[in-house]
Amino acid sequence: MINTKQDLQDYARGAALLGAGGGGDPYIGRLLAEQAIDAYGAPTVIQAEALDDDACIISVAMIGAPTVLMEKACSGDDLDHLLEAMARHLGKKVDALMPIEIGGVNSCLPLVAAARTGLPLVDCDGMGRAFPCLEMVTFNVYGCDVFPTVMVDEHGNEIVIRATDAPKTEKFARSVIGEMGLSAMISCYPLSGKQLKRWAVTGTMTLALELGRAIRLGRQSDNPVQSLLDALNSTHYYSPARLLQEGKVVDVERVTRDGFSFGTCRVESQTGYSAIDLSFQNEFLSATNDGGYVATVPDIIAVVDKDTAEPITAETLRYGQRVSVIATNIPPLMRTPEALAVFGPRCFGLNTGYQPHERTTDQLE
Amino acid sequence: MINTKQDLQDYARGAALLGAGGGGDPYIGRLLAEQAIDAYGAPTVIQAEALDDDACIISVAMIGAPTVLMEKACSGDDLDHLLEAMARHLGKKVDALMPIEIGGVNSCLPLVAAARTGLPLVDCDGMGRAFPCLEMVTFNVYGCDVFPTVMVDEHGNEIVIRATDAPKTEKFARSVIGEMGLSAMISCYPLSGKQLKRWAVTGTMTLALELGRAIRLGRQSDNPVQSLLDALNSTHYYSPARLLQEGKVVDVERVTRDGFSFGTCRVESQTGYSAIDLSFQNEFLSATNDGGYVATVPDIIAVVDKDTAEPITAETLRYGQRVSVIATNIPPLMRTPEALAVFGPRCFGLNTGYQPHERTTDQLE
Questions:
Q1: What are the backbone angles phi and psi of residue B197, rounded to the nearest 5°?
Q2: Which of A85, A163, A179 sits opposite B175 (nearest CB)?
Q3: Which of A88, A268, B26, B35 is buried deepest, with most CB atoms within 10 A?
């Protein structure tokens, strides 16, 4: 499925969009995947239905502040260590790998691990986007065990967490990250084939590839952002999608704290008559217009270049950028009350319930 | 060996002395051991020589700030969980338990675990005293693996650390303790019988019992502190022992930081003509007289009540207490250059090499 450098570029770009501004710089992930595919060949991507019910599938990801991921990538040896450690703790053979999130660098790392090991990669993830905390996955929402959670760093340090629940696992992981240099390799939610088929957000690797391809091809049109919106609206998961604001980045505040990148960003229309304020914790959490919510998590809020529709991550936002802010729907598994209890706006400290972006009636420019 | 309540009291009191002011309040440890022995019977204590070379021996301890241990003891279930988890990660049956340090609460916790499980307890430890960091044991000095290191808390959370070395293990453990409520159960340095016989400080449980008994019986004499010094001087490990200062606690500063209790204490002679300044990081690290070192780690510096020779831990030091400050030698395994590189004064940030207390020539009152 992802065989050429062009495929990889498209895939990484699509994943950057689905990263909702977070998930780590996909450029780094793409370079790592390119190198691994050059050295070991392209991994086989399989569909969830192809899995035996008792197959053992594990996820591969980086955890940490995206601001740090930009400077500290993985070595490959650490991924091998991660997979070996997880198999050792599970006491069984691993049959396939998967991304835990389709957004950002974590969409590409499983490609690296799969290329190195020859294990197949399942076309799915646990979010249909990116989220900052490891309890924010469908597997947790629907009752799969997060443990054992294995973390390794580039020095060969290995931590195994077996906590009472996923939020506590997240807390332990964050406390350990500091000693691992603020980013580490992590595997959690080891799944059976049966669990994966039931609770994964399937087909998202294909969707990332298609959306990235649409961005590239859309650049031949008059309106690349509209082409992207058309592509999003042609998917089952991300439709409806719409433009929230077009304009200039006039303010960015950003702080790296507790292993996360927190901040806000204002995008003002060229005329100056309207503005959208974005908040983020690694990923964009909300878009407000004069204090009123026009979009919130778990809907995807993304910022793209106005002229090229290139996704812009929260850590690369700069004053003066000309951007379009868009919002999309998310997969049905992620809009249930159980799901919103785990990654709805209040889980991020926002003072609002979930506001499906297509139902907000605010006037937009 | 430790069968009656009287034995337990003596043992805990001796361990408090060998705790060098740290290791957690032994009173708490004694109550826990009393309760366990009432419920399950006294554990069997065996000598190191009785172990097969390929026996599997694991340590049982609490880790955290002594100021917190005073308020948050163990439940028993957490010890069971700790032993089960260590056996699971080792993939073998555990044959015996041991204290990792003979000082303070960690001298008593293995009694609780041994009583609950029926496993024998080996008459030894890894320090011959107490130390604040988990790399500060003879096993680390002489090349035994610290991993797997298992930590559990009272909620059932479990962390396994497999770090590149013992100091890094200590750092991970401290980073995790915060999420475990600043104290946790820990097991590390799983040993073979062969390793234990070679590198453990043997016979220290017996010594703690005898020293505690000497303190109790010494109260019938005119000078309990002198009786204690005589008892210390009759041992191979802790001789020579001497009185550094008798007087009043006139100043105590204490702060709980990074999972440790740090501080200083001044003991002034009744006449006011001389004073000893003590520094501590959980345990007493140094005694100075007008800025000159009269004793340093790893020698044991202990503060006892002037009239009863009752050991006083650093966290229970109070203004106005009438005390005697004593210093003792330590076992030969702990005075080698390799040992001093791991727990000599410079390892605690003191600006001095090891000063064997019997060689410091300062005038003492």
A1: -65, -30
A2: A179
A3: B26
Cβ contact, residue pair B163, A157, below 8 Å: yes
- Tell me which DSSP letter residue A43 carries: P
- State whether residue B155 sits within 8 Å of chain A by CB: yes
Contact criterion met (CB below 8 Å) for B30 and B12: yes
pLDDT-based confidence at B270, cuts 50/70/90? Answer: confident
pLDDT tens-digit series, residues A159-208? 999 999 999 999 999 999 989 998 899 999 999 999 999 999 999 999 99
Chain B positions in Cβ-Cβ contact with residue A159 (cut-off 8 Å): 159-162, 172
Distance CA B116, CA B78 (A): 11
Residue B68 scores a pLDDT above 50: yes
In terms of domains, do A84 and A189 share one?
yes
Between chains, do A162 and B159 touch, taking CB under 8 Å as contact?
A: yes
Does residue A336 sit within a domain?
yes
Separation CA A13–CA A238 (nearest Å)? 16
Same domain, B117 and B189: yes
Mean pLDDT check: name the lowest of A67-71, A154-158, B98-102. Answer: A67-71
Whether A228 is covered by a domain: the verdict is no
Please check whether residue B340 lies inside any domain of the structure.
yes
Query: How far apart are alpha carbons A255 and A190 in whole angstroms?
Result: 33
CATH code, domain carrying A265 = 2.40.390.10
* Residue B307 sits at the chain A interface (C-beta within 8 Å): no
Tell me the longest C-alpha to C-alpha distance in chain B.
Answer: 62
ipTM over 0.90: no
Instruction: Measure in Å the smallest separation between the Cα of A161 and chain B Cα atoms.
Output: 5
Answer whether B161 sits within 8 Å of A162, measured CB to CB.
Answer: no
d(CA B262, CA B265): 10
pLDDT score at A67: 67
pLDDT digits (tens, 9 = 90+) for B123-155: 999 999 999 899 999 999 999 999 999 999 999
Per-residue pLDDT for A361 more than 60? no
Range(s) of the domain holding residue A28: 5-202
- Distance from the Cα of A171 to chain B's closest Cα (Å) equals 7
Q: What confidence score (pLDDT) does residue B187 get?
A: 98
